[in-house]
Amino acid sequence: MIHMNLNENSFVKQKYYRYPDASYSEIRNLIRKKYNLNNADVLLGNGSTEIISAIFLWAYLQKKKIFYPWPSYILYHELTQLYNADVTCIPMDIESWNVDTLISTVTKDSLLLLCNPNNPTGTFLKKRIVRKLISNLPTTTTVLIDEAYIEYISTDDEINGSVNEVEKDSNVIVVRTFSKYYGLAGLRIGYALLSKEFYQCLRPFLQLWNVSTPAVEAAIKCLSPSPRYKEGKQDMIKSRKQLQEILCTNGFNVLPSVTNFLCFTHPKIKDYVDYWDCKGFMINKLLPYQDSQLHGYIRLSIEHNEVMKKFYQSINDIGRIL
Fold first, then answer.
1. What topology does CATH give the domain 227-321?
2. For residue 138, cis peptide bond before it (omega within 30 degrees of 0)
3. What is the pLDDT of residues 162-198, one digit of tens each?
4. CB neighbours of residue 279 within 10 Å
5. What is the SS3 assignment for 172?
6. Going along the chain, which residue ranges are E strands?
7. Neighbour-count burial of 137, counting CB atoms closer than 10 A to its CB (0-12 exposed, 13-18 middle, 19+ buried)
8. 25-222 and 227-321: same fold?
């Protein structure tokens, strides 16, 4: 094909002077192959947040009731405020979720947003629990399972659990990202596994060229077998365990986590946060959650070893002061 239809500039000899392939067929086919998809399709997004936002807007325009557990991913709350949508936040315990409460609350012709593993608490519903939830919801309920952190789960069976739900149920959408496990947060690329019907419905909600060519190229490389990701995961888990032990030894209450972050508090948490601020540690203070059970909790990302050593030392330093 001779491209002369899109007013691209071929005179400056830039590598990326062409627009991306609007169908994103290569990477979509690779993701289909990765999950052995037969009935489902793949929708690409500028990060998983773009896809979640599009699905939220679709539900809003369809005048669907929207449900989500709380506390959960702050994007859901931000979208609620943006659209002044008809939303029910279902209060959940921060250490474990009662799916029976979800089942008894969610109504027909609605959208349920389920962040699993949950952000910012780090808790996780196993696939048999998710299966119980989906099978007991009204058949007209759309379930969006937001799995940004799913690759940090320890077993492959659990990592791929919800993919089977997409193949079995056209009302289930699984959203994933290349930002976390694969380390491409700066390039902004995520995807949804969903029915072909939902693909056709939701694609118009996204821009034509919504993901850049460099992002696609990097994501394609991530889909090739490489030990670096599993090694990085094991190193992170080791650091997370070490941080949790140090925090517990120093009197912190730490929520169980299967992700690359920990959520915790302390009777003198304000003093710790003030000290970390002075030392240049950027801590997520979870300010939007202060009216929930997360009041007084903070969330901390697990970083590479040199950063973690400095953070461990900071805990010891302030412990001596307090």
1. Aspartate Aminotransferase, domain 1 (3.90.1150)
2. no
3. 998 999 899 999 999 999 999 999 999 999 999 999 9
4. 13
5. strand
6. 40-45, 65-70, 87-91, 110-115, 142-146, 172-177, 190-195, 253-254, 261-265, 298-301
7. buried
8. no
Per-residue pLDDT at 303 exceeds 90:
yes
Domain range summary for the chain, segments of one domain joined by +: 25-222, 227-321
Q: What is the CATH number of domain 25-222?
A: 3.40.640.10
DSSP string, 16-56: T-SPP-TT-HHHHHHHHHHTT-SSEEEEEESSHHHHHHHHH
pTM comes to 0.96
247-288 pLDDT, tens digit per residue, is: 999 999 999 999 999 999 999 999 999 999 999 999 999 999
Confidence of residue 156 (pLDDT cuts 50, 70, 90): confident
Sign (positive/negative) of CA torsion 127, 48, 149, 69? negative
Rounded to the nearest 5 percent, the helix, strand and coil shares of the chain are 45, 15, 40
Query: What are 14-50's pLDDT values in tens digits?
Result: 999 999 999 999 999 999 999 999 989 999 999 999 9
Contacts of 206 (CB under 8 A, 6+ apart): 43, 45, 46, 50, 51, 54
| Strand extents, DSSP E, 74-227 | 87-91, 110-115, 142-146, 172-177, 190-195
Residue 62 in tokens = 């369809």
Rounded average pLDDT over 291-319: 95
Size (the chain), residues: 322
Q: Name the token pair of 29.
A: 């086919």
